[in-house]
Amino acid sequence: MVLYYTLTFCLLAAEMVTFCLLVMPLPFAVRKKLFSFLSESPVVGKIAYALKISFIFVGILFIDALQRMFRVTAEGDLARSKDGVQDVRTETNYAARKFYAQRNMYLTGFTLFLSLILTRTYYIMLDLNHTQDEYAKLKKATSAQSRANIANNNQANDVATLKTKLAELEAKERDFETLKKQAQQQADEYDRLATKYNEATGSNSNKKAD
């Protein structure tokens, strides 16, 4: 295999390993740290930039392999139509050329196709992590709000209880004031009657003495 096709095969293997790592069922915290590193690391950014350039060359190799496969197929069909029956060596040479052309086309084509799938999967996983992070924050905020609502309800119940007790105390105080006024009126009336009685009794005694 030629050197650039060997490098293309290594790139394809690396893409397969990376895809397996992306779709591996990892815990949310580990996956979040992994994708944060991949999206924020400057080294990963430089590697991604180099890979984009390499994919351009892989695309050129794919077009070249596709054209070569069509050319080999056309040459084989033309040779069969002219010569009729071919010898074993020519047929073997043609089969080998066709095999190498197809191998190179499939190798470069799968590398490009997997790069598209890998890119799309990466951004889907980023969106999934962002959505899960937002869900965790929303769940925490909802829980805090629920606790605050429960605390407010408890406070409201306490305030209502205190208002009820205050109203009862005020009613008792009014009743006490009413009883106090009635007792004071009765005491004043008793003093008035006692004074009149004393005055009447004292006047009668004076008349009898006369």
UniProtKB/TrEMBL annotation:
It comes from the Eukaryota. Residues 158-209 form the Bap31/Bap29 cytoplasmic coiled-coil domain. It is a multi-pass membrane protein. It is found in: Endoplasmic reticulum membrane. Keywords: Coiled coil, Endoplasmic reticulum, ER-Golgi transport, Membrane, Protein transport, Transmembrane, Transmembrane helix, Transport. Belongs to the BCAP29/BCAP31 family. One of its GO terms (biological process) is intracellular protein transport. The lineage of its organism: Eukaryota, Fungi, Dikarya, Basidiomycota, Agaricomycotina. GO terms for cellular component: endoplasmic reticulum membrane. Residues 1-137 form the BAP29/BAP31 transmembrane domain. May play a role in anterograde transport of membrane proteins from the endoplasmic reticulum to the Golgi. It comes from Botryobasidium botryosum (strain FD-172 SS1). The chain crosses the membrane at residues 7-27, 47-66, 105-125. The keyword Endoplasmic reticulum applies. This is Endoplasmic reticulum transmembrane protein. Its main location: endoplasmic reticulum. Residues 152-200 form a coiled coil.
